[in-house]
Amino acid sequence: MTWNLWIRRLHRWLSMAFTILAVANIVALAAQVQAPWLGFLALVPLIPLLATGLYLFALPYLAKGPARA
What we know:
By secondary structure, the chain is mainly alpha-helical.
């Protein structure tokens, strides 16, 4: 399996983890539970999610190479 597929798979799993943690944070806020660590815990997958997302966004532009005049 190539690196691109591994990064895409990692990005999908990170997005699922972030979604679950964000929903848990919203539920905790609605229930008025004082758990600030839960809000910070949702930020943990966000940084690698940003990195993999930027890589996947740039991938088609990097694959094209220089433009021909």
